[in-house]
Amino acid sequence: VQLEESGGGLVRAGDSLTLSCAGVGDTFDMFSFSLFEMGWFRQAPGKEREVVAAISWNGDTKYYDDDARGRSTISRDNAKRTVTLKMNSLKPEDTAVYYCAAKLAKSGPLSGSYDYWGQGTQVTVSS
Predict the structure, then answer these.
(1) Which residue, 68, 98, 81, is CA-closest to 36?
(2) Distances (CA, A) of 109 to 74, 97, 113, 122
(3) Could you say which DSSP state residue 43 is in?
(4) Please, what's the b/e burial string for 104-114 (b: 16 or more CB within 10 A of its CB; e: otherwise)?
(5) CB 1 within 8 A of CB 67
(6) Residue 32 main-chain phi, psi, to 5 deg
(7) What phi and psi values does residue 16 have, to the nearest 5 degrees?
(8) pLDDT per position in the chain (127 positions), as tens?
(9) CA 45, CA 16: separation in Å to the nearest integer?
């Protein structure tokens, strides 16, 4: 299972940013990608990794942590094998490496443990 993130970068406080994650390689076709629940996590320097948002296999159920709720939107396109996280009103505290993750559907809560991880993409928010 291979996941590739893109869309990170340097932005200013108050800006918006969209992160994308693609399921790549032979493991994923449209059918198999839909077997996975997908999540976005982040890890800031000196802090533990935390969940930002997650989405069920069919997109019907979404989870947001308290800080992300209301200013973030997670979505997925199983045909394209992608999951996207759009974040608005970014703050310097959002600076972190953002990771895309996958786990088999119905293998625990959306905010729980994930089995497969991308390499991460850096998001830096300047004040």
Answers:
(1) 81
(2) 16, 23, 8, 26
(3) E
(4) eeeeeebeeeb
(5) no
(6) -70, -35
(7) -115, 155
(8) 799 999 999 999 999 999 999 998 777 765 688 999 999 999 999 999 999 999 999 999 999 999 999 999 999 999 999 999 999 999 999 999 999 999 988 888 888 899 999 999 999 999 9
(9) 21
The residue type of 35 is L
| Encoded tokens for 126 | 């300047």
Residues 6+ away with beta carbon under 8 Å from 114? 39, 41, 101, 102, 103
Residue 106's pLDDT is: 82
Tokens of 55: 């989405």
